[in-house]
Amino acid sequence: MRAKLEESLSRFEELERSLLDPSVQTDAQRFSAVAREHGSLAKLAVKYRRFKQLNAQITEAAAMIDGDDPELAELAQAELPQLKAEREILWDELLELTVGGEDAARTRCILEIRAGTGGEEAALFARDLYEMYRRYAENRGWKVEVLNLSPSDLGGFKEVSLGIEGEGSFRALQYESGGHRVQRVPETEAKGRVHTSAATVAVLAEPEDVEIDLRPDDYRVDKFSASGPGGQHVNKTQSAVRLTHFETGIVVQCQDEKSQHKNLAKALRVLKTRIYEQKRAAELARRAQERKSKIGSGDRSEKIRTYNFPQNRVTDHRINLTLYKLDSIMQGDLQPVIDGLLEYERQELRAAFGAGDD
Predict the structure, then answer these.
(1) What is the C-alpha separation between 258 and 235, in angstroms, rounded?
(2) What pLDDT does residue 286 have?
(3) Tens-digit pLDDT profile for residues 189-203
(4) SS3 string of the chain?
């Protein structure tokens, strides 16, 4: 944890210097990106800088107590308990800010939902998850933008990508990554039998432009006509965009906007986010620092939650949490589940890192 805090402080101080750089100040887009990342790290970095100062003061006070000057020793002896108490409070605050991992402070993320097994019912469930997350985000005052949408014939979603921006958005939503299973009677079921279908969710931290250097010759752009269900929403112009990143092989496409320019801008956001996610995962694996906790993998193949409509029940299998309020959760009242996941992570951190004394 100390290594991650040092990295955050180092990055924060690097961004502080960048904000004073004339070349950054004259580039409005770059300055905005640097300022946004600087702001997202500020709370954690400033607290950790103060924590390091307190450690230095405590070390100095201890040396004075063991020194030859009785008067200084007496002053240090009186000051030491207060310094240690402040450090303990600050360490608890740092632990709290660290809940959710090194990207927890990010204010932007991309949430992707894909229909899984279950045909049209899975697509309808994907749409319901979209509505749940959209309502939750709006309740939190976050900005929600549809980046890409692929509808099914009966009004469901084969897949949908959302850009979400707001304080604490990634910290709260990152645990939604994984497999979501629904048990209910489909609208198309004549005999009233309960069916099981699934959808997968991925939540990716969105990097700032200054973090991913993506040049036009790094990817291929393919333009094509957007399509919709049954041909009724087919766009006759080539406004849809598909990007293929040469180095990683990552492919993204956007067709939600009528403007090719807007689709390209959205596709670039998604591409940068996926490149960042791939590099982040590779670095975590290389350093072997990713803790294998119940809620930490984010693997889409991992079944994380079941939504049982006949019983009005939702169960998060990672932390054995069951709530009989599925109706309100589907209306966007997701906070009780999020709180349970954050509390589990909080307890894991406290058990792993304990107090902040050296």
Answers:
(1) 8
(2) 55
(3) 767 788 899 999 999
(4) CHHHHHHHHHHHHHHHHHHCCHHHHCCHHHHHHHHHHHHHHHHHHHHHHHHHHHHHHHHHHHHHHCCCCHHHHHHHHHHHHHHHHHHHHHHHHHHHHHCCCCCCCCCEEEEEEEECCCHHHHHHHHHHHHHHHHHHHHHCCCEEEEEEEEECCCCCEEEEEEEEECCCHHHHHHHHCEEEEEEECCCCCCCCCCEEEEEEEEEEECCCCCCCCCCHHHEEEEEECCCCHHHCCCCCCCCEEEEEECCCCCEEEECCCCCHHHHHHHHHHHHHHHHHHHHHHHHHHHHCCCCCCCCCCCCCCCEEEEEECCCCEEEECCCCEEECCHHHHHCCCCHHHHHHHHHHHHHHHHHHHCCCCC
229 pLDDT higher than 90:
no
CA–CA separation, 177 vs 201, rounded Å? 5
Output the six-digit token pair for 203: 């939540």
- CA torsion sign for 284, 287, 288, 292 is negative
Which residue bears the tokens 């991650």?
A: 4
What percent of the chain lies above the pLDDT cut of 90?
54
Decide if 148 contacts 271 (C-beta within 8 A): no
C-alpha to C-alpha distance for 105 and 108, rounded to whole angstroms: 9
Question: What is the rounded distance in angstroms from the CA atom of residue 233 to the CA atom of residue 226?
Answer: 8
Residues 83-122 pLDDT 10s: 999 998 998 888 888 777 777 778 899 999 999 988 899 9
Kindly give, in sequence order, each residue whose CB lies less than 8 Å from that of residue 39, ignoring residues fewer than 6 positions away. none
pLDDT at 33: 85
Q: Which two tokens stand for residue 209?
A: 């432009």
Specify the amino acid at residue 342: L
Go through 317-338 and write b for each residue having 16 or more CB atoms within 10 A of its CB, e for each that does not. Answer: bbbebebeebeebbebbbeebb
pTM here? 0.74
Query: 3-state SS string over 320-338?
Result: CEEECCHHHHHCCCCHHHH
